[in-house]
Amino acid sequence: MPRTNPVPALLSALSLNPSNSTVKAHGGSGFASTFKIETETEDGRKERIFVKTGAGKDAEIMFRGEHESLNAIQQAVPTLCPRAFSHGPLGEGSEQFYMATDFLDLSPSGSSKGESLASKIARLHSTPAPEKYAGKFGFPVPTCCGSTVQDNTWEDTWADFFGKRRLMMIMKESERKNGPDSELRHYVEKTVETVVPRLLGNLKDLKPVLVHGDLWSGNASRGILGEKQDDGMIEEVIYDPSVSYSHIFRAQLPKMILIDGAGKACYAHNEYEMGIMKLFGGFGTAFFNEYHKLIPKSEPLEEYEDRLKLYGLYHQLNHHALFAGGYRGGAVSTMRSLLLKYVENK
């Protein structure tokens, strides 16, 4: 079946004039087609837009979650990630969907003269849930971590949210993709029943705050956000919490930005962010020292490292669901060590 040219539908969906707009394929993604649009506004300003397109219900869910996540992060810390301004079907009744954001130029070199990444993440982690969801853990819409659709149904306690909406959810997804696994299910269920309430049920002064949800080093960089293109302002930035932009933006000048932060945001325990940061590395001692001067580690302090192991477990299980391979062994090892320490030796 021949592929339909998406350009006319894209320009129509974004209400852009074809006579002064160009659309070019830009980079690539495992989950979407990606484009760069250069256009001119009515007042003569040059504008660049980044667009993703995809087909079917999965793309619709992914782009909606990414749109909501990016804008929640961008509203909390405006210089941390691109602004998303549009998403939806490419025409009435279309099974093709799109999401449009500010264009982000990433730079492989250069330094940021703006606010540090640790300071920006601390500000992000000081953003409470909207008033109508005050005190609850979750997010208004489903989001995606890779192609995994995350159930963000609001829960009253963090232990319930993490146990049900992350660990049990990803166990179900893993079996859907890789087949039944009674041993892995045993360990996950036992961890949810025992370790999760033990480590997360008694945290002091725990309040839900906004997190990126997939902040590994590949989703953070230095770059120039759309509105900063003319002055060349380099920021520390983050991006796509589950669908990384890191490989799809042409670098110009170097500030630090969150790139993949968009798609997986939720209101959670702030240390949940640290699980994947520690698991896959890339953030040095200086980052964590600066961050924890601004936001101290939760009490009890002596269980901090084990909490991060528990939070990293979700990402080990998600990688097993997505890619199989050796991630299962790492997840089982994590669960065995936590169960031995907090359950079997007690």
TrEMBL record:
<keyword id="KW-0418">Kinase</keyword>
<dbReference type="InterPro" id="IPR016477">
    <property type="entry name" value="Fructo-/Ketosamine-3-kinase"/>
</dbReference>
<protein>
    <recommendedName>
        <fullName>protein-ribulosamine 3-kinase</fullName>
        <ecNumber>2.7.1.172</ecNumber>
    </recommendedName>
</protein>
<dbReference type="Pfam" id="PF03881">
    <property type="entry name" value="Fructosamin_kin"/>
</dbReference>
<keyword id="KW-0808">Transferase</keyword>
<dbReference type="InterPro" id="IPR011009">
    <property type="entry name" value="Kinase-like_dom_sf"/>
</dbReference>
<dbReference type="GO" id="GO:0102193">
    <property type="term" value="F:protein-ribulosamine 3-kinase activity"/>
</dbReference>
<comment type="similarity">
    <text>Belongs to the fructosamine kinase family.</text>
</comment>
<dbReference type="GO" id="GO:0016301">
    <property type="term" value="F:kinase activity"/>
</dbReference>
